[in-house]
Amino acid sequence: MLILPQSFYARDTLVVAKELLGKILVRKIGRATLSGRIVETEAYVGSIDPACHAFKGQTKRNQVMFGPPGHAYVYFTYGKHFCLNFVTEPEGNACAVLIRALEPIKGIKHMIANRRIDEIKNLCSGPAKLTQAFSIGREENGFPLFDGNLLVYDDSMDNFQIGTSGRIGINAGTDLPWRYFIKNNQFVSRLVK
Prior knowledge:
Number of strands: 9
Distance between the termini: 32 Å
Shape: globular
Strand content: 25-35%
CATH topology: 3-methyladenine DNA Glycosylase, Chain A
């Protein structure tokens, strides 16, 4: 397996969001290694997207989005959840891909302990669920995804079909078909026929 290079993220956000499907997110915590296959993403495209955190400009909260591509943008939402995004496009464009769901692969016992549930299908089937399962929080905001304890690998899995739909859990830009998922994967947050 190869670690995705920073250049992978320095491209069109919609392309990156689709091409992240099937890739492996790996989180190292001490001696433990957690991993999961990315099965669902959503694209957020800077100043043209009313649902994007960068739509109205740079703030302290979203400043990582304006930085170099290939870094984690982690934000707190609804007063209790963290969400993991990958910064995309050249520096200054403020675009990102939300990682909506993972298929757990390794470190499942740790994920179960972190989530306090034992239903594997429900461990990482949503953006807040996967950050809780992987112990991702504010401290990981700005982490590089190509060097360190939060990495994305390509294991060349590509034998799947990609589904699209409108994005979920937002109030603006819901008509944009920028949610991508692996069709018929049981770990997707919300199945679409």
